[in-house]
Design goal:
Blueprint (H helix, E strand, L loop, with lengths): L12 E3 L8 H5 L4 E4 L2 E4 L6 H13 L5 E3 L12 E4 L2 E3 L13 E3 L6 E3 L6 H9 L5 E3 L9 H8 L2 E5 L11 E3 L5 E4 L2 E5 L8 E5 L3 E5 L3 E3 L4 E3 L8 H10 L7 E4 L5 E2 L2 H17 L1
Length: 282
Protein backbone atom coordinates (compact mmCIF):
# COMPACT_ATOMS: atom_id res chain seq x y z
CA UNK A 1 0.00 0.00 0.00
CA UNK A 2 1.37 3.41 -0.98
CA UNK A 3 1.56 5.86 1.90
CA UNK A 4 3.25 9.19 2.44
CA UNK A 5 6.55 8.56 4.22
CA UNK A 6 6.47 10.37 7.57
CA UNK A 7 9.97 11.84 7.07
CA UNK A 8 8.69 14.12 4.28
CA UNK A 9 8.42 17.80 5.10
CA UNK A 10 4.79 18.88 5.56
CA UNK A 11 3.16 20.19 2.40
CA UNK A 12 1.97 19.39 -1.08
CA UNK A 13 4.99 17.41 -2.37
CA UNK A 14 5.98 14.06 -0.87
CA UNK A 15 7.51 10.66 -1.68
CA UNK A 16 5.54 7.54 -0.87
CA UNK A 17 6.73 4.36 0.79
CA UNK A 18 7.02 2.45 -2.49
CA UNK A 19 10.34 4.29 -3.06
CA UNK A 20 13.13 1.76 -3.65
CA UNK A 21 15.88 4.19 -2.60
CA UNK A 22 17.56 4.29 -6.01
CA UNK A 23 18.72 7.90 -5.28
CA UNK A 24 17.69 9.18 -8.74
CA UNK A 25 15.36 11.84 -7.32
CA UNK A 26 18.09 13.06 -4.98
CA UNK A 27 20.51 13.60 -7.85
CA UNK A 28 18.12 15.80 -9.83
CA UNK A 29 16.95 17.68 -6.72
CA UNK A 30 19.99 17.78 -4.40
CA UNK A 31 19.17 19.30 -1.04
CA UNK A 32 15.46 19.46 -1.81
CA UNK A 33 15.13 15.66 -1.79
CA UNK A 34 17.34 13.77 0.68
CA UNK A 35 17.85 10.28 2.10
CA UNK A 36 15.94 9.58 5.31
CA UNK A 37 14.23 6.57 6.79
CA UNK A 38 15.70 4.20 4.22
CA UNK A 39 14.43 6.08 1.17
CA UNK A 40 14.21 9.50 -0.49
CA UNK A 41 11.98 12.20 1.02
CA UNK A 42 11.38 15.91 0.59
CA UNK A 43 13.55 17.81 3.10
CA UNK A 44 11.45 20.91 2.44
CA UNK A 45 8.75 22.01 0.05
CA UNK A 46 9.86 23.56 -3.26
CA UNK A 47 9.62 27.35 -2.90
CA UNK A 48 11.15 28.75 -6.11
CA UNK A 49 10.55 28.09 -9.82
CA UNK A 50 13.91 26.27 -9.97
CA UNK A 51 12.98 24.01 -7.04
CA UNK A 52 9.56 23.33 -8.52
CA UNK A 53 11.24 22.22 -11.76
CA UNK A 54 13.51 19.94 -9.73
CA UNK A 55 10.46 18.38 -8.07
CA UNK A 56 8.71 17.92 -11.42
CA UNK A 57 11.78 16.25 -12.89
CA UNK A 58 12.02 13.95 -9.89
CA UNK A 59 8.38 12.97 -10.38
CA UNK A 60 8.87 12.19 -14.08
CA UNK A 61 12.01 10.14 -13.67
CA UNK A 62 11.07 8.16 -10.55
CA UNK A 63 10.95 4.49 -11.62
CA UNK A 64 8.34 3.59 -8.98
CA UNK A 65 6.17 6.70 -9.49
CA UNK A 66 6.72 7.51 -5.82
CA UNK A 67 7.26 11.28 -6.15
CA UNK A 68 3.85 12.84 -5.70
CA UNK A 69 2.05 16.14 -5.42
CA UNK A 70 -1.37 16.75 -3.96
CA UNK A 71 -2.16 19.23 -6.72
CA UNK A 72 -0.99 16.86 -9.50
CA UNK A 73 -0.14 19.85 -11.70
CA UNK A 74 0.96 18.75 -15.18
CA UNK A 75 4.75 18.69 -15.63
CA UNK A 76 6.31 21.33 -17.88
CA UNK A 77 6.97 20.22 -21.44
CA UNK A 78 10.65 21.15 -21.17
CA UNK A 79 11.40 19.09 -18.04
CA UNK A 80 13.13 16.39 -20.13
CA UNK A 81 15.39 16.03 -21.97
CA UNK A 82 17.29 18.16 -19.45
CA UNK A 83 20.19 20.12 -20.93
CA UNK A 84 23.36 19.34 -18.95
CA UNK A 85 25.87 21.11 -21.21
CA UNK A 86 26.04 21.95 -24.91
CA UNK A 87 24.84 18.89 -26.83
CA UNK A 88 24.35 16.61 -23.80
CA UNK A 89 20.98 15.92 -22.16
CA UNK A 90 19.65 13.80 -19.31
CA UNK A 91 16.70 11.83 -20.66
CA UNK A 92 14.71 11.20 -17.46
CA UNK A 93 11.99 8.51 -17.27
CA UNK A 94 14.39 6.17 -15.45
CA UNK A 95 13.72 2.45 -15.80
CA UNK A 96 12.83 0.32 -12.79
CA UNK A 97 14.71 -2.57 -14.40
CA UNK A 98 17.85 -0.43 -14.26
CA UNK A 99 17.22 0.37 -10.58
CA UNK A 100 16.52 3.96 -11.51
CA UNK A 101 19.78 4.65 -13.37
CA UNK A 102 20.08 7.87 -15.37
CA UNK A 103 20.49 7.79 -19.14
CA UNK A 104 21.75 10.48 -21.47
CA UNK A 105 21.58 11.73 -25.04
CA UNK A 106 24.39 13.23 -27.10
CA UNK A 107 23.16 15.36 -30.00
CA UNK A 108 25.67 15.30 -32.83
CA UNK A 109 25.73 15.88 -36.58
CA UNK A 110 27.09 12.38 -37.16
CA UNK A 111 24.02 10.87 -35.46
CA UNK A 112 22.44 11.13 -32.03
CA UNK A 113 23.73 8.78 -29.34
CA UNK A 114 21.88 7.41 -26.30
CA UNK A 115 24.03 6.36 -23.35
CA UNK A 116 22.21 3.67 -21.37
CA UNK A 117 18.44 3.65 -21.70
CA UNK A 118 15.36 5.09 -20.03
CA UNK A 119 12.07 3.25 -19.89
CA UNK A 120 10.13 3.24 -23.14
CA UNK A 121 7.94 6.31 -23.34
CA UNK A 122 6.42 8.34 -26.14
CA UNK A 123 7.80 11.53 -24.62
CA UNK A 124 11.37 10.36 -25.29
CA UNK A 125 10.51 8.87 -28.67
CA UNK A 126 8.83 12.06 -29.85
CA UNK A 127 11.79 14.24 -28.88
CA UNK A 128 14.27 11.89 -30.55
CA UNK A 129 12.16 11.85 -33.70
CA UNK A 130 12.07 15.65 -33.69
CA UNK A 131 15.84 15.74 -33.25
CA UNK A 132 16.62 13.44 -36.17
CA UNK A 133 16.40 9.95 -34.70
CA UNK A 134 19.00 7.79 -33.00
CA UNK A 135 22.13 6.28 -34.52
CA UNK A 136 23.73 4.44 -31.60
CA UNK A 137 22.98 3.22 -28.08
CA UNK A 138 26.02 2.85 -25.83
CA UNK A 139 25.44 0.54 -22.87
CA UNK A 140 27.81 1.07 -19.95
CA UNK A 141 27.15 -2.34 -18.38
CA UNK A 142 24.61 -5.08 -17.86
CA UNK A 143 22.55 -3.33 -15.15
CA UNK A 144 21.45 -0.23 -17.08
CA UNK A 145 20.05 -1.68 -20.30
CA UNK A 146 16.53 -0.42 -19.61
CA UNK A 147 14.39 -0.49 -22.76
CA UNK A 148 17.36 -0.15 -25.11
CA UNK A 149 16.06 -2.97 -27.30
CA UNK A 150 12.78 -1.17 -28.02
CA UNK A 151 14.55 2.10 -28.82
CA UNK A 152 17.03 0.29 -31.06
CA UNK A 153 14.27 -1.47 -32.97
CA UNK A 154 12.20 1.68 -33.38
CA UNK A 155 15.07 3.83 -34.64
CA UNK A 156 17.23 1.20 -36.30
CA UNK A 157 20.06 2.10 -33.93
CA UNK A 158 23.27 0.17 -33.39
CA UNK A 159 23.75 -1.11 -29.82
CA UNK A 160 27.17 -1.34 -28.16
CA UNK A 161 28.06 -3.39 -25.06
CA UNK A 162 31.12 -5.20 -23.76
CA UNK A 163 31.31 -8.92 -24.45
CA UNK A 164 31.50 -9.73 -20.73
CA UNK A 165 28.06 -8.17 -20.15
CA UNK A 166 26.49 -9.09 -23.48
CA UNK A 167 24.01 -11.58 -21.97
CA UNK A 168 22.01 -8.62 -20.66
CA UNK A 169 21.52 -7.27 -24.19
CA UNK A 170 21.37 -10.18 -26.65
CA UNK A 171 20.05 -7.76 -29.28
CA UNK A 172 23.33 -5.79 -29.23
CA UNK A 173 25.10 -5.88 -32.59
CA UNK A 174 28.33 -4.02 -31.72
CA UNK A 175 30.46 -5.89 -29.22
CA UNK A 176 33.45 -4.38 -27.42
CA UNK A 177 36.15 -6.95 -26.72
CA UNK A 178 39.06 -7.02 -24.30
CA UNK A 179 40.47 -4.31 -22.10
CA UNK A 180 41.87 -1.74 -24.50
CA UNK A 181 40.07 1.48 -25.50
CA UNK A 182 38.11 1.25 -28.74
CA UNK A 183 37.45 4.20 -31.05
CA UNK A 184 33.77 3.99 -32.01
CA UNK A 185 33.82 7.19 -34.06
CA UNK A 186 35.97 10.28 -34.37
CA UNK A 187 34.56 11.82 -31.18
CA UNK A 188 33.55 8.66 -29.30
CA UNK A 189 35.91 6.39 -27.35
CA UNK A 190 34.91 3.29 -25.39
CA UNK A 191 37.12 2.69 -22.33
CA UNK A 192 36.63 -0.72 -20.66
CA UNK A 193 36.47 -0.32 -16.86
CA UNK A 194 36.01 -3.78 -15.30
CA UNK A 195 35.16 -3.52 -11.64
CA UNK A 196 31.52 -2.65 -11.05
CA UNK A 197 30.81 -5.49 -13.47
CA UNK A 198 33.20 -7.52 -15.61
CA UNK A 199 32.00 -5.67 -18.70
CA UNK A 200 31.68 -2.11 -17.42
CA UNK A 201 32.63 0.54 -19.98
CA UNK A 202 32.97 4.32 -19.85
CA UNK A 203 32.38 6.36 -22.99
CA UNK A 204 34.36 9.52 -23.66
CA UNK A 205 32.74 12.02 -26.01
CA UNK A 206 34.62 14.90 -27.59
CA UNK A 207 37.49 14.46 -25.14
CA UNK A 208 35.41 16.24 -22.47
CA UNK A 209 32.30 14.28 -21.51
CA UNK A 210 32.83 11.00 -19.67
CA UNK A 211 29.78 8.74 -19.30
CA UNK A 212 30.65 6.42 -16.45
CA UNK A 213 27.67 4.14 -15.82
CA UNK A 214 28.09 2.92 -12.25
CA UNK A 215 31.90 3.04 -12.20
CA UNK A 216 32.31 6.65 -11.08
CA UNK A 217 29.90 9.32 -9.83
CA UNK A 218 29.59 12.61 -8.01
CA UNK A 219 28.38 12.54 -4.41
CA UNK A 220 26.43 15.68 -3.49
CA UNK A 221 26.60 14.62 0.16
CA UNK A 222 30.40 14.32 0.14
CA UNK A 223 30.86 17.04 -2.50
CA UNK A 224 33.37 14.80 -4.25
CA UNK A 225 33.86 11.94 -6.68
CA UNK A 226 32.83 8.53 -5.40
CA UNK A 227 32.63 4.85 -6.33
CA UNK A 228 30.32 2.15 -5.00
CA UNK A 229 32.09 -0.64 -3.14
CA UNK A 230 28.85 -2.27 -2.00
CA UNK A 231 27.84 -2.92 -5.61
CA UNK A 232 31.03 -4.19 -7.16
CA UNK A 233 32.28 -7.33 -8.89
CA UNK A 234 35.88 -6.49 -7.94
CA UNK A 235 36.96 -3.46 -5.92
CA UNK A 236 40.60 -4.11 -6.83
CA UNK A 237 39.79 -4.28 -10.54
CA UNK A 238 37.70 -1.13 -10.29
CA UNK A 239 40.53 0.76 -8.62
CA UNK A 240 42.90 -0.30 -11.41
CA UNK A 241 40.33 0.71 -14.02
CA UNK A 242 39.77 4.15 -12.54
CA UNK A 243 43.52 4.70 -12.46
CA UNK A 244 43.50 4.32 -16.25
CA UNK A 245 41.15 7.30 -16.47
CA UNK A 246 43.97 9.52 -15.21
CA UNK A 247 45.33 9.33 -18.78
CA UNK A 248 42.36 11.34 -20.04
CA UNK A 249 41.61 15.03 -19.54
CA UNK A 250 37.81 15.19 -19.17
CA UNK A 251 35.71 17.89 -17.55
CA UNK A 252 32.34 16.20 -17.10
CA UNK A 253 31.28 13.02 -15.31
CA UNK A 254 27.83 11.80 -16.30
CA UNK A 255 26.85 8.96 -13.97
CA UNK A 256 24.14 6.34 -14.12
CA UNK A 257 23.75 6.23 -10.35
CA UNK A 258 24.87 9.19 -8.30
CA UNK A 259 25.33 12.74 -9.46
CA UNK A 260 26.86 14.26 -12.58
CA UNK A 261 29.37 17.10 -12.30
CA UNK A 262 31.47 19.57 -14.25
CA UNK A 263 34.95 20.57 -13.07
CA UNK A 264 38.04 21.95 -14.82
CA UNK A 265 40.07 18.98 -16.14
CA UNK A 266 42.95 19.52 -13.71
CA UNK A 267 40.58 19.60 -10.73
CA UNK A 268 38.71 16.54 -12.00
CA UNK A 269 42.00 14.67 -12.28
CA UNK A 270 43.08 15.74 -8.79
CA UNK A 271 39.84 14.52 -7.28
CA UNK A 272 40.01 11.25 -9.23
CA UNK A 273 43.55 10.60 -8.00
CA UNK A 274 42.43 11.31 -4.44
CA UNK A 275 39.50 8.89 -4.81
CA UNK A 276 41.82 6.15 -6.05
CA UNK A 277 44.05 6.67 -2.99
CA UNK A 278 41.02 6.42 -0.70
CA UNK A 279 39.97 3.22 -2.45
CA UNK A 280 43.42 1.72 -1.92
CA UNK A 281 43.24 2.50 1.79
CA UNK A 282 39.77 1.07 2.31
Amino acid sequence: MRERHPENAPGDWYIDTACMDCSAARTVAPGLIVARGGQSVFARQPSTPAELMMAQRARLLCPTASVRSGSEAPPPADAFPEAMTAGVYRLGYNAKGSYGAHSFLIRRDAGNVMVDSPRWTRAVVARLEAWGGLGDILLSHEDDVGDAGRYAEHFGARVWIHAADRAAAPFADKIIEGGEPVRLDGDLLAIPLPGHTKGSVAYLHDGRHLFTGDSLAWSFEQDDLTAFRSYCWSWTAQRRSLRRLLDYAFEWVFAGHGGSRHLPPAEMRRRLAALIERMAAS
